[in-house]
């Protein structure tokens, strides 16, 4: 049932080209520049007129929500707030008619996410689900929704659900951007043509994992890791750190790269591997300065970058080169080496990759 792979997690990492293709199938038309999402057709008017969007989720799904924030704000020019579902449910809920909540959940059964959705509905907001498991409680209770169609995810560490969630949020943001005239058909065509190429580009990354395996072997016994990224790469930094924590039990923190100088820089010395996600071109110069700051303190730089960002590649001690894409799609590629890094390190450390200690696949308790 693991299809020849040692673990479900590895199988699911390698399934991502197919999962993203399945997620895109029948929904995008690169020639026409259109996105079709049947599950939100009936509420599209409300989404177009929304004052703001609140995204609520937990864990990895919260990270894909953070990517969603950048996507909706950039492509559809709508203000977005991303909330931990567990925080939203117990705070002053300033949400009501005219607001839209998007809840993101792989399992569709996460207790805190379900509670956030119920609270938002009670106050009159429209709630849209981005869910994997068909017919799950969250899928049933939302007003509308888009399934991510990633197929069953068995490994406790979420991998293909993350990339498929980001894919759905991307399609939603393009669709909303078009409806709000925030992007033109010409821009949509360009975006959608590139989106259609993402499965193939993920495949390219998966075809050559030797460098990331080598890096994993060198750092398997590091006690700490720091992950840095800016813009679209910031949520990816958080996701990379979470993957490493949950399956390898190495302490890891993700930070927006510019925040480093407000505290975490004190941690950097020759014992500290720093994973730098330099995959967005518009932040490249700033990432180069951050890399120099880490190098000056003898931190060990592992860069996730692209051929065009060659200066990053030159400065970093190690680098994993991913294919070029538009900045908006970069999380779909840059997260892949991070999933692999955590996987290989966890295997080297003899950890139970698919069922890490203390964790359950779906968290149905508060
Ligand atoms: O099923 P959900 O997407 O609602 O689950 C949310 C989190 O529990 C989940 O993403 C968790 O953080 C994963 N173990 C991360 O790999």
TrEMBL record:
Q: Which reaction does it catalyse?
A: D-fructose 6-phosphate + L-glutamine = D-glucosamine 6-phosphate + L-glutamate
In the UniProt entry, which residues are flagged as the active site? 361
Q: What residue ranges are annotated as transmembrane?
A: none
Query: Which UniProt keywords are given for this protein, alphabetically ordered?
Result: Aminotransferase, Cytoplasm, Glutamine amidotransferase, Repeat, Transferase
Q: What is its main location?
A: cytoplasm
- Which top EC class is given? transferase
Q: What EC designation does it have?
A: 2.6.1.16
Where would I find the SIS domain in this sequence? 43-183, 215-356
GO terms (molecular function) for this protein are: glutamine-fructose-6-phosphate transaminase (isomerizing) activity
List where in the cell it is found: Cytoplasm
Q: Summarize the subunit comment.
A: Homodimer.
What functional role does this protein have? Catalyzes the first step in hexosamine metabolism, converting fructose-6P into glucosamine-6P using glutamine as a nitrogen source.
What is the protein name stated in its UniProt record? Glutamine--fructose-6-phosphate aminotransferase [isomerizing]
Species of the source: Gracilimonas halophila
Instruction: State the encoding gene.
Output: glmS
> Shown portion of the whole protein?
245 to 610 of 610
């Amino acid at each position: 049932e693991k299809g020849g792979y040692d673990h479900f997690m590895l199988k699911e990492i390698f399934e991502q080209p197919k999962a993203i293709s399945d997620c895109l199938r029948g929904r995008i038309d690169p020639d026409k520049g259109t996105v079709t999402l049947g599950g939100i057709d009936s509420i599209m008017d409300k989404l177009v007129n929304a004052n703001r969007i609140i995204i609520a989720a937990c864990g990895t799904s919260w990270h894909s929500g953070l990517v969603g924030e950048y996507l909706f704000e950039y492509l559809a020019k709508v203000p977005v707030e991303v909330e931990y579902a567990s925080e939203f449910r117990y705070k002053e809920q300033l949400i009501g008619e005219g607001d839209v909540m998007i809840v993101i959940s792989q399992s569709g059964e996460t207790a805190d996410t379900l509670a956030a959705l119920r609270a938002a509905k009670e106050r009159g907001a429209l709630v849209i689900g981005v869910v994997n498991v068909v017919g799950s409680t969250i899928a049933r209770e939302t007003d509308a929704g888009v399934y991510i169609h990633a197929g069953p995810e068995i490994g406790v560490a979420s991998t293909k659900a993350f990339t498929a969630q980001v894919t759905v949020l991307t399609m939603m943001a393009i669709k909303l951007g078009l409806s709000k005239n925030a992007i033109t058909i010409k821009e949509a065509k360009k975006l959608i043509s590139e989106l259609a190429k993402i499965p193939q580009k993920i495949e390219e990354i998966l075809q050559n994992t030797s460098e990331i395996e080598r890096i994993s072997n060198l750092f398997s016994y590091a006690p700490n890791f720091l992950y840095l990224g800016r813009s679209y790469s910031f949520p990816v930094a958080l996701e990379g750190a979470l993957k490493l924590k949950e399956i390898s039990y190495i302490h890891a923190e993700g930070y927006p790269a510019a925040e480093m100088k407000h505290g975490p820089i004190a941690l950097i010395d020759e014992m500290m591997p720093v994973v730098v996600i330099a995959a967005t071109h518009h932040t490249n110069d700033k990432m180069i300065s951050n890399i120099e700051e880490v190098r000056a303190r003898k931190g060990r730089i592992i860069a996730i970058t692209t051929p065009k960002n060659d200066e990053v590649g030159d400065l970093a001690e190690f680098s994993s080169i991913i294919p070029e894409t538009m900045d908006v799609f970069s999380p779909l590629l840059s997260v892949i080496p991070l999933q692999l890094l955590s996987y290989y390190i966890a295997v080297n450390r003899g950890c139970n990759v698919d069922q890490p200690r203390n964790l359950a696949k779906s968290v149905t308790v508060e």
